[in-house]
Amino acid sequence: MTPTLVRNQPGADASAPADAGTRARDWAEIQERMLAPLYEAVYDRMEVGAATRMLSLGCGSGLAMLVAAARGAHVTGVDSDRERLALARARLLPDAGWDDAPAHSRHPASSRARLLEDGGPAPVGADGAPYNLITVFEPIGCAAGDSEGLAPALRSAVPLAVRGAAVVLTGWGPPERCATAAVLQVAARLADTARPPRTEPGRWRPTLRDDLEDVAARAGLKPDGSGRVSCPFGYADVGSAVRGLLSTGLFDAAVRATDRSQVEKEVAEALHPYQREDGTVWMPNVFRYLVCVT
């Protein structure tokens, strides 16, 4: 495989917490792995392997890319979060001067990795071969405005792919199938204390049945199948659960409306019904994926 990372939208988000690095690590070390069953299900469905040239939009800290690379795929990642992208670089390019790369992530296939620092997506590999799979593993449909920039990004990425390439979008399943939805409602309630518009970007809102299909339509993509995947959220304790959930960004509006300590306290209280006798936290969830063709 040949992993490639590129950074777009340079500059820090003004609304991001001061401890952006800590939050990125919480995402990478606690929360991101909760979506591993989703990655595996999509890759099984798409038969990801040595012939796959994948572009991952919103690649985060790179776990989905690492899983694809372990299957032999050539992967490129794009993300606007500098902190998460730095962690992805450490995972995928462990020999590029990043001393904190986890030892378990040093897959032999990463030895031929290359990194493009700036700009939009570039063709994978030195030969400029186009992509044949585009993935969006940042789940949409759980925060107001979370898909606003996705359709334009997809329209820009599709010309880089071969004709008929697959595009996979992912999102939260029905709220009644997601235990975490009850905890995420805390974000909406606390955000309302400042009486922001209900459409404030990042504010939690219930998932809608056609969220993924709406994005596909706006991007000019044709749906060609879908699936649901069980992705339970499991944590060692309530403290880890709070850190993991806050790393998603879904509580940012609540933090802005109140303060972090209050949000942490109320999230911890909302997690009590899901805490087991041994102190662990377990919340069953269902996520969706939509396969489209270019």
From TrEMBL:
<dbReference type="InterPro" id="IPR013216">
    <property type="entry name" value="Methyltransf_11"/>
</dbReference>
<feature type="region of interest" description="Disordered">
    <location>
        <begin position="1"/>
        <end position="23"/>
    </location>
</feature>
<feature type="compositionally biased region" description="Low complexity">
    <location>
        <begin position="10"/>
        <end position="21"/>
    </location>
</feature>
<dbReference type="InterPro" id="IPR029063">
    <property type="entry name" value="SAM-dependent_MTases_sf"/>
</dbReference>
<feature type="domain" description="Methyltransferase type 11">
    <location>
        <begin position="55"/>
        <end position="92"/>
    </location>
</feature>
<protein>
    <recommendedName>
        <fullName>Methyltransferase type 11 domain-containing protein</fullName>
    </recommendedName>
</protein>
<dbReference type="Pfam" id="PF08241">
    <property type="entry name" value="Methyltransf_11"/>
</dbReference>
